[in-house]
Amino acid sequence: MRLLLLLSVFDVCWAQYDPRTKCGRTSIVHLFEWRWDDIALECERYLAPNGFGGVQVSPPNENAVINNPLRPWWERYQPVSYKICSRSGSEDEFRAMVKRCNDVGVNIYVDAVVNHMCGKDVSAGTSSTCGSYYNPGSRDFPAVPYSGWDFNDGKCQTSSGEIENYNDANQVRDCRLSGLLDLALEKDYVRSTIAAYLNHLISIGVAGFRIDASKHMWPGDMKAFLDKLNNLNTSWFPEGSRPFIYQEVIDLGGEAIHSSDYFGNGRVTEFKYGAKLGTVIRKWDGEKMAYLKNWGEGWSFMPSDKALVFVDNHDNQRGHGAGGASILTFWDARLYKMAVGFMLAHPYGFPRVMSSFKWPRYFENGKDVNDWVGPPNDNGTIKQVTINADTTCGNDWVCEHRWRQIRNMVIFRNVVNGQSLTNWWDNGSNQIAFGRGNKGFIVFNNDDWALNSNLQTGLPAGTYCDVISGDKSDNDCTGIQVHVGNDGRAYFSICNSAEDPFIAIHVNAKL
Ligand code: ZXY
Ligand code: CA
Q: Is the dihedral of CA 131, 133, 137, 140 positive or negative?
């Protein structure tokens, strides 16, 4: 009885921090701006077979159609109702996707935009993804419904009604973020309306939520609507499962609001992770990979069991936003693969892999003037994700998650799950290596000279396939082979000009 009680307390305590992934899967992928039909196919044909635990999908609710600039990606962050009806598809298509992904053990996490509705200066009318009428000027969103009483116009203390000073927590929570109409989350009606939207998604079968713009909501207000959420759908999840919650809080230090304010509600995005890792791998500010020895809490990041980690996200991959120029993206493919490889090999945090679309990046005075450009489309309709003969994607979908090096490191992380970081080695510069118990080992050479070293891997003796330069196939390796001796040691040789200057081996890719 006492044990049962203890177990249930433990369960409740860990509930919203647990991504509820299936079969020992340990990462998720953000399929940014993909259509629901394409995500359903991707779950079945690629994500499930390769051990991805889930997908973060773009906001599924109805949003303002912005025509100036023409259909930017950020229009999806301007809600006009909670109808599931967006450029990614209809509610029927969304339901079909959730079912098909859940049926192959891939969870769906929804990007929930609940701090605000659309911008105050968007014109009134029915220019929305589902044709619902709305009037931002009179604070009227009849399709929800919300009216003037449901916004923070009276509560915000700045003269402009906008957030003017990020050192003032009251403004950051109660004023408008770049003109977006700020919801009055202290009202029970608003809390209940948001909870009803999220519970609708839970009933369809989603596993949790990324909560957009959490920095701009009071943690207590968030707790109030999160406490109203139902348990996950028992068609796919154990009785009593709580939704996974990860809150987008951009905290690089130096502002009034801290990530730790939100730990009670669920996990929090660790924006320092990508900003710092980019700086290290670019070798800026005198950083070296050797300094990664105490990566994680040792770098004053939040506790590992609270952290949602990523190299780049849909916002900061555009050269602005949190982290700025140091952020690595698919545009810097060689360094990017090392960064994602490091993230997936390292035990700190719960990782999200980014999957992007290509846009016509063009810098003027250090700023990308095309940072607003929306997904590949034909007259506004999002293009299908086509798959080429070599398994890469077409139609300007980048599909980083399908790059061999990244996909194989997603598998690596599953194989080494639960093992601690062992056998750290570095050369005092930018050559490092570490193991994960007796399951896997990874070696990086980010110096300007060759790496030739005999290292303790901690692995059983045998011949292993490097999963960066190739795959294990028909009991052979398509890339480099690594021979681990009876003493667990292996000789590694990585040329600094190698296409990918790192090697990773694990026990499931042993000949
Ligand atoms: N936008 C352009 C034009 C409009 C959208 C812009 O220059 N915005 C002002 C600076 C960026 O501020 C925004 C932040 O979060 C948002 C924004 C936003 C969240 C949304 C919708 C938004 O504009 O429009 O749901 C933001 C919040 C922070 C912070 C930094 C930025 O420290 O606490 C953008 C849109 C950015 O640049 C955006 C959109 C969605 C996101 C996100 C950023 O999830 O993280
Ligand atoms: Ca707010």
A: negative
> 430-483, pLDDT tens digit by residue?
999 999 999 999 999 999 999 999 999 999 999 999 999 999 999 999 999 999
Helix (H) or strand (E) holding 309: strand 307-309
Q: How far apart are CA 469 and CA 404, in angstroms?
A: 8
For atom 5 of ligand 1, which residue has the closest CA?
74
Instruction: Reply yes or no on whether 212 is catalytic.
Output: yes
Indicate if ligand 1 lies below 6 Å from the C-beta of 166.
no
Q: What pLDDT digit, counting tens, does each position of 101-155 carry?
A: 999 999 999 999 999 999 999 999 999 999 999 999 999 999 999 999 999 999 9
Euclidean distance between CA atoms 247 and 260, whole angstroms? 11
Reported as type and span, the H/E element at residue 214 is none
* Cα 120 to ligand 2 centre (Å): 14
Atom of ligand 1 nearest to the CA of 371: 37
Distance 115 CA to ligand 2 centre (A): 5
**Euclidean distance between CA atoms 226 and 202, whole angstroms:** 12
Taking the centre of ligand 2 as the mean of its atom positions, its distance from the CA of residue 371, in whole angstroms, is: 25
Answer yes or no: is pLDDT of 10 > 70: no
* Nearest residue by C-alpha to atom 32 in ligand 1: 250
Alpha-carbon distance of 443 to 342, in angstroms, equals 9
